[in-house]
User: Fold this.
Amino acid sequence: MAKVLIITGDFVEDYENMVPFQALLAMGHEVDAICPDKVAGDSIATSIHDFEGDQTYTEKRGHNFVLNASFADINVEDYDALYLPGGRAPEYLRLNAKVIAMIQHFANTDKPIASVCHGPQMLTAAGVLKGKKVSAYPACQPEIEMADAEYVKLPMDGAITDGQLVTAPAWPAHPAMLKQFVALL
Assistant:
């Protein structure tokens, strides 16, 4: 079984954080969820994004999620794969130089990476998408294209794999995204 790292943070999308974390554990994988400046046992706040007929998604407070590993203590070389959830957290996580270096390690060593919704914002900031076919929440299309990647418009329950990278537009894509991600592990 694989050892998967999740980089997450406050106001990550609840489903995009919880569902893959729990599903990968249930499949027998070892999963560590970390957040900058936090340690194992600390909680992060999540948010719930939903599609309710408005021009964009709505946002509500979600659950508290307890981290099971300490950001400062992990060694990325110990992990087989990386998962980056979406929500609001990628907006600020992509500003953290250590987060960027971690992402670049996985890309540069050709380890599997999965990312959903706004998670690809971290991939664009890390400069690892050039020439890739990438899906994300539609509002991220300009960033993906500025990163010299091809934005792939998919239904909200779709996912795409390009090499070792699996991306999807939003949490309804968990079955497709997780199936494709696990196939790479």
